Each structure stands twice: as C-alpha cells, then as structure tokens.
Amino acid sequence: MDHFLYRGGILHAEDVALTEIAAAVGTPFYIYSSATLARHFRLFTEALTPLPHLVCFAIKSLSNVAVLKTLGDLGAGMDVVSIGEYLRARAAGVPGDRIVFSGVGKTRAEIRAALEGGVRQFNVESEPEMRAISEVAVSLGTTAPIAIRVNPDVDAQTHAKIATGKSENKFGIPISRAVPAYAEAARLPGLRVVGIDVHIGSQLTELSPFEMAFRKVADLTETLRAQGHRIERLDLGGGLGIPYARSNEAPPLPTDYGAMIKRTLGHLDCEIEIEPGRLISGNSGLLVAQVIYVKNGEGRDFLILDAAMNDLIRPAMYEAHHDILPVIETAPGEPTRPFDVVGPVCETGDTFARGRELPLLAEGDLVAFRSAGAYGAVMASEYNSRPLVPEVLVHGDQFAVIRERPTFDEMIARDKLPRWL
Ligand code: LLP
Fold first, then answer.
1. According to the model, what pLDDT value does residue 166 have?
2. Which fold has domain 34-281?
3. Average pLDDT over every residue of 7-31
4. What superfamily does domain 4-31+282-413 belong to in CATH?
5. Residue 133 has pLDDT above 90, yes or no
6. Which end of the chain has a smaller Cβ tally under 10 Å, C or N?
7. Pocket test for ligand 1, best of 71, 202, 257, 275 (most atoms within 8 A of CB)
8. Which residues of 394-418 are buried (b: 16+ CB within 10 A; e: fewer)?
9. Domain ranges of the chain
10. What is the pLDDT of residue 163?
C-alpha cells in the first residue's frame, strides 16, 4: 500500500495534489511520500520482531539525504556501498554503528574513512579485500568488525542483470571456500569477525531462493561456531521484490519474509540484519512527467513525454514495467487506446512502454510513473544535456524540494575550457 491516491479526481501524494507540485516545481520531477517510506520500514521491523534485528536501508536505491533522515530518525540503519553513500548517511545524522559497508571494491581510502568515522561492520567480498581492511585497521591502531559475504550459488530467479548469488557472479566468496576464508580472517591482526553476510539478488518474487540461501547460512553458522568463530550477526542482504504491475503481481510480503527468517535462522541466537532498498523506497516514489506531443505513427500512436530514459532508465536497462497513471483521474468506462510511451532522447531505447492502454491523453496532460522511488533518481544522468530532475518530499499536507533542478548555466559551468582553447 502507498499514499498515492486520487482525491476529487486528482492524484495526490498524501494530502498534496500533484497538480499543485507540478505548478510549483515544473516537470519532470520525482516525488516521495514520507508516510509510505515510514510504513514500509515499519513492516520490516514488525516482521522481524521479536528477533534482535537492524533494518539497514540500501541507500543505493534512493540516496537523497532527506529520505535517509526520514528513515534514520525512525531508527533505521543504512547499507552503503561507497564512501559517498557513507557520507550521505552521516549527513542524515545516522551514527556509524548503524552503517554497514558493503560493495565488491572498497578502496583503502574508503576503508580508512569508514574506520575513522565509525562503522558497524564491513561486508567483505574477497580475500584481497579482507587483507586490505586488516592492513588499514592495523595502521590506525584499531580492529575492523567484519562479516564475510558468502556466495551461496543459489539462483535468485530474477533479471540476469540483478542476480548476484550464483557462482558465476562477481559477488562474495564462494560458500565452499568460507571455512578457509574465516580461518584467515581470524588470523589477520586487524579484523574482528562478527558474522556472516549474504545477498542473492534484487526484485525476487519468490521466497524459496532466499530460504535456500538462508539454510546454507544456518549450516555455515554452526560449522564456523564449532571452529571457534564468534558469529553474532547474520546479514541477509536485501532483494525482496515489489509489485510493479499492480493488476497481476503479488510478491511475498515482508511478514512472510520475516516468518521464513524466523523459521530458518531464529534458533541461532544471532542478531539479524537486512538490507532492503526497493521494498522501502520503490512504491514510495513517483516520477511525474508532462505530455509534450501526441504523435500518430504508422499503426501506432506515440505519447512523447518530457521525461526520458536519462531520468528513469529501468525500462531501457532491464525491460522493466512501470504502471503509468494519468494525474487527472478518468471515469470508469471512458475510452482508452494503446500508446507507445517515449521520451525525447535520440535513441529507440528511450521507450517507457509499448502498446500501453491509456486514456486519451493530450498535450499538456500530466502522467505519473508508479514504483519509481527505487533506482529512479539515483540512476539518472544528464544524457542529451538534460539536467537532473528535482526531487520533492511530501509529509502530510506539506511538500519540500529536497533536490533542486540545476539551471542550464550550472550544468554547463561544470565543464572547464583548457588553457589552449
Ligand atoms: N544489499 C546489497 C549488497 C545489494 O547489492 C543490493 C542491491 C541491496 C542490498 C538492495 O536490494 P533491493 O532490496 O533494493 O532489491 N538497479 C537495479 C537494482 C540493482 C540492485 C543492486 N543491489 C534495478 O533498478 O532494478
């Protein structure tokens, strides 16, 4: 459930009409609902209660500091994959002991900065990285808390570009090598083993791949404990999918996911960490755009929007479906027709949807892409010299621009001419 509903015939974000925001901010823009973010975060904490747990929001899905503060103020931890994300979490007031540092290629500079600033744990993805973390920790006269990300060789049954738990993927240390890897970690002077980490992919719509991976983690916990390792925390990653096409998708709910975690890992007396991104941010955000032209093509009609693939790349990159809603509600029974919904960018990949049944929209009408909160704004670029679109946060009947639209001058002023030109 989200807080984007029609009221009086106009799509609202909580208590604010999207037409009002469009008039104030211009289109396109991203809009996020504080109440939806909070609700989704609480669903996870409730699902894991009474197990000791920390829900670490995967910042990569939506990294605006105002969003992070909304969640951080509720007690959320953060999962970061770069020092840039770490600094965003800190800028949002999240203490280091609630920040988990994941990612396959942490540099020594990133490791140092996180150790100096405070970090809950590093999720280690390879033996060389483990050695680097130890070296940096020793040079700072400290020890680094670590979990090793194991690759369980489980098929997440999701889009190939976002599956991470098969042995052919670049992520983690193969679970078959976990025992020697933990033995080496225990020997390294700068490391303190605190747990095990696993993340098998994103947009999973079944629980069974998770369960298969978590059972392997449960077995590994017992094996490692028998060898004298202190396994106090299990970080289970993120990945729970959301319904993108509301009419026919019903992925498992956080309560089902929580019940499965309790069933498979509850007996181990570990603190559970999870790293959900999409399920918290995805349906908390919309991308709002305006129709520039309706173009009648050969046997098809194009709805040309002022938003493009540079603003929301998911359809072009993952063949992803996003529901498209007219901001002004159409009455039931009003005619619809199929449109190819496209942006102005100069490539055919700049297509949001093909043959989508929509009401008879016209120039100037507003539309909203649903489920655009996750991996929307964060993956945007300035391709075709289109400035990044602004982000707006709604809280009840208030809204605020939480990232401004840059001016063209600001965008161009970042380029510098060399001396010889
Ligand atoms: N933890 C780790 C280590 C991850 O790599 C990811 C996502 C997450 C947590 C959060 O996963 P989530 O709960 O959001 O599924 N850009 C793609 C998704 C990439 C996911 C990358 N890793 C998309 O738009 O679908």
1. 76
2. TIM Barrel (3.20.20)
3. 98
4. Lyase, Ornithine Decarboxylase; Chain A, domain 1 (2.40.37.10)
5. yes
6. C
7. 202
8. bbeeebeebbebbeeeeeeeeeeee
9. 4-31+282-413, 34-281
10. 77
